[in-house]
Amino acid sequence: MGFLSRKQKLQAWTFEASVNSDGVIAWIDAFCKTLTKRTVLVIDHAPFHTSHAVEDKRAEWKARGLELFFLPSYSPQVHILEILWRFMKYAWIEFDAYKGWKYYVEYIEEIIIPYGTKYVINFG
Q1: Mode of pairing for the β-strands spanning 2-4 and 10-12
Q2: Please, what sign has the CA dihedral across residues 71, 75, 79, 82?
Q3: Per-residue confidence at 12, pLDDT binned at 50, 70, 90?
Q4: CATH class of the domain at 2-112
């Protein structure tokens, strides 16, 4: 799970569980605490983004300076986290990542921690 700006700022969390609305709400609530100006969060139509629980929080988040903007359905080419994930899976992956789950998790963390310095995507 993460938040990524076109200016290479990444806040990401790794965890070994399914994503659900409660987790999304907790992450967005925490993100709202870091806001210093009006912010638009661009998200896709995943069920955990469009749930009633998330919809019920939108007015509160808007009052805190955060608005949600939903991408068109089936548009991973403009979803910058999906673009990052594609780079991780197809351009930056190391062979050792396939040795097992532990190695795969380590590989992901070795990219997201230095992302923006060692690993960069030009979103142009």
Answers
A1: antiparallel
A2: positive
A3: confident
A4: alpha beta
